[in-house]
Design a protein that fits this description.
65% helix; mainly alpha
């Protein structure tokens, strides 16, 4: 297996895990606010989708985020996806619906898959600026996929705190 095939295999596995964590999610589950300092699922979910959007579109390709080009702030009801640039307070305080968030996720997936279809071994070695310094595109994609998997576990745990099954396996 070459590196491009490995990226695709990991991408598909991460998608299955993320989809499993979101199975059966309702607006009520999405908007439940845990105690202490934990984030509600809505904040985590918009963060992880927005992070993929930012990593693939902006960091790797130098393009604006799908969030910006397709007007997702208005559709989702948040000014920006939570991340290093802020947005956490709004995402914690604003009740949202799962439907536009999942539509945003589908738009980001389509953009990610369009990029990955043209992925080459040479592209994987290209350097990009990443938080903390320079990385290869391959490293950036790997970190993006790892973050998605980590947050799928977090969403699953937050569902479990509500008495709902998280990842169903």
């Amino acid at each position: 297996m070459n590196a491009v095939d490995a990226i695709w295999a990991q991408y598909e596995a991460t998608r299955r895990l993320s989809d499993a964590a979101l199975d059966g999610i309702s607006d009520e589950i999405l908007n439940w606010v845990p105690g202490n300092e934990a984030n509600p699922i809505r904040a985590v979910l918009v963060h992880v989708i927005g992070s993929e959007d930012r990593f693939i579109q902006t960091v790797i390709q130098g393009q604006p985020m799908v969030w910006e080009t397709q007007g997702w702030a208005t559709r989702v009801g948040l000014p920006m996806p939570p991340g290093r640039g802020g947005g956490w307070d709004e995402a914690k305080a604003t009740t949202v619906s799962i439907e536009p968030i999942m539509a945003y996720a589908q738009a980001v997936r389509a953009a990610t898959e369009a990029y990955l279809k043209g992925l080459t071994e040479t592209e994987l070695d290209r350097k990009v600026q990443w938080v903390g310094g320079e990385r290869t595109v391959g490293q950036a994609i790997g970190l993006c996929l790892a973050q998605t998997a980590f947050h799928a576990g977090e969403i699953s745990a937050l569902k479990g705190m509500q008495g709902v099954k998280g990842i169903p396996f």
